[in-house]
Amino acid sequence: MRQIEVAQVTQAVKAAAIAANYEPGADLLAALARGAEMEESPSGKEIFRQLLENARIAREERVPMCQDCGLAIIFAEVGQDVHLVGGDFAEAIQEGVRQGYGEGYLRKSLCHPLTRANTGDNTPAVIHTEIVPGDRLKLTIVPKGGGSENMSRLYMLKPAEGLAGVRERVVTTVAEAGPNPCPPIIVGVGIGGTFERAALLAKKSLLRELGQPNPDPELAELERQFLKDVNDLGIGPQGLGGRITALGVHVLMQPCHIASLPVAVNIQCHASRHKEVVL
């Protein structure tokens, strides 16, 4: 049994929260560069140029790449041979978010849902914990912006609607979102499971590196089809028209009840921030 002090968790989350907002991933930069080459619209090409320049400034000058520094979502994969000691695991994560958003001068965006009073420190974070084999702890921090999250949707389809129904909902969700989620976007799709599981699958799908093929051939083909459909909408970068509305579509799927067909579409903005740390 391997012991990990929860103080290490706090420090890791703090550093990752800051890095996610300051340091665009190599996969995102490569996707933006590809988009700049493929985009045919002059205004779209200029937007890609500005997005790449914005990413450079964020990385080199250590400032957030977007003013919306997001609600912190943490995916925690806890090895079953790990023993967390020295305090409460969940509170250690919350403290890491608290410190990261404070010391990193990141905007605090969380508020009471009714009074709208700000919580003041961007907590509580949303934590998804999964027990996995091994003696390591993997933490993935995802600062999720409000604009893209607001455009996300969950559908409970009739089973008879099948693939055509899934495809229609994905395209309709993006079409109705238009410029609101700051395209070019990344589209996460969760198919199957239950009401809440489909939504989690959609969000978790966004953790895969942009440009990395889906290991499941069936889902890889769905992603190819969905991406073409979405880009054929012509919404384009920042909604000003063009070929590249989405940089990628990522799909996760699992079996569901015979009477159900849950489908979730979780839209991510062009910033696509996430950082992973392994303890």
Task: Write out key terms for the chains shown.
single chain, 279 residues, alpha/beta, 2 domains, 4-stranded mixed beta sheet, 25% strand, globular
Q: Which of globular, elongated, flat, extended, rod-shaped describes the shape?
A: globular
Strand content: 15-25%
Largest sheet: 4 strands, mixed
Low-confidence stretches: none
What gap, in angstroms, lies between the N and C termini? 14 Å
The multimeric state of the shown protein is single chain
The succession of helices and strands, N to C, reads EHHHEEHEEHEHEHHEEE
Alpha-beta content class? alpha/beta
Question: Domains counted in the coordinates: how many?
Answer: 2
Counted by DSSP, the helix tally is: 8
How much helical structure, as a percent, in the residues? 40-55%
Cα Rg:
19 Å
Report on this model:
By secondary structure, the chain is an alpha/beta fold. The chain has two domains: 2-21 and 65-144, no CATH class; 147-272, no CATH class. It has eight helices and ten strands. A four-stranded mixed β-sheet has the order 4-2-5-10. It has a four-stranded mixed β-sheet with strand order 6-9-7-8. Strands 1-3 form a two-stranded parallel sheet. Helix 2 (26-38) runs antiparallel to helix 3. The protein is globular and about 55 Å long. It starts with a strand and ends with a strand. The model has no long low-confidence stretch (mean pLDDT 97).
